[in-house]
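We now fix the convention by which a protein and its fold are recorded. The integers have meaning only within a learned vocabulary of local backbone shapes. A complete example follows; check for yourself that the lines match position by position.
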Amino acid sequence: MNNVVNGTDRTTAANAGGTWRIFKGKANDGTESTTLYGEDRDADIAVTLLMQGSDLPRIVQWGRPMAHPEYLVNCNDAVRPQRVSGGLDDTDWPSIIPTQAEAWTGSDRLVLRRDGVELFCRFSTTDDPIAINGRRVAITAIDEVQGLALLWECEITQSGLLRQRARPSNGRSTDGSESDGSRAENELGTLSVDKIELAYPVPEEASEILSTTGYHLRERSPQRQPFNIGRVERLSMVGRPDFDASLLMTAGVPGFGFSHGEAYSAHVGWSGNSVLSAERTTYTQGLIGGAEQLVGGEMQLGQGESYTTPWVYGSYGEGLNEVASRFHGFVRSMHPLFAKKPRPVILNTWEAVYFDHSFDTLKALADKARDSGVWNSSITPAASGGRPRMPLANPGLMSQVTSVTRFGSPLWSMKSNANRLTVFASLPGTTRITLRCAGSASTVMYRWPLRLVPSMPIAPTPV
């Protein structure tokens, strides 16, 4: 083993506890290695990246902070897989974007084509590849032969999430400019990005997979299975996460639950078509991750253009509660007003009554909502005078507020006719709203709050 050659602590005031440290050393075979160690002790999370020579980095540790991260400079010798009989010269040891050039034998995770011909890439890091900005580290690499550039970013959030994304460029510079290389600038054709799947490694002990499935009225049903050799993937191909979409792909120790057992989860921060996967080859630890699911020809890059993947998030915890809390903290940090104002409870009557809009039933629901401390109620009236219809997807059929007055009666009352509904809310200082349907009242349904808060628009929202 080699001693630490150089240890640099990169900390900024904006980090608020997040730190990246760089250690340089040599492996026993003489290969130069760079180790990046990122941690946030407040969030009780750490990650280690290993760069061997000019290879793309590998995530070699993800979990709790380490007492002496300076010894991670030796992890190249400690965790690099040994050569096996009957195998390739290099054993599977996936980088952040594994390719056949590094002896990856699992499923394709990078699929690029130029003028219809698939490229077999070998990225090498640039001369000064590491850039640290607060909680985020960026690595730059190029493929001179194929005329490609790659920017990969990894960030530790304040809640303890990891997230990573990649940006390939059609050219040898991540900023769109060209440099002299083995191919002339005018030889670079259109680059088709068909797939870039990012992943996080999990230890061998994480041998059980948890995902969710379901259908309408039974969404997010858990399902477990062993993390065997091979690949498990959950596709979402309806343009958004469907009822059977899995929010997370989780691997953990057998029998992990909400409050016990180490668990590692991956999530794709994308609202369109996507894939979550868990994969293990014969000689590697498991990988969990995902990607935007692109179709052939969807992402075409001209000279100097680039494509940025969605963020792929990773969450680690002792049990699913800690895993979930990191996501909750991150979302709340994106919307700071969530924690600075009251969180109103909304009652939606849709599943309670559907189209049976009986005054007595709605009044009883409103009374119970009031007694339970509900701030807002949402009513979906079938303003048809008897024969309800499903709503039409027509933005022209909008409701109009015909009168808005202050009303402070302690009583609930409700009046309705064929195409009008007047609601009186019970709480002092709330608002009376009279709504009239514009257009065919028999084919439009609307929701609106019984009680408006100052930040809420007066206009109702179509269902």
In short: Confidence is low (pLDDT under 50) at residues 1-16, 179-184, 380-463. The CA atoms of residues 8 and 22 lie 5 Å apart.
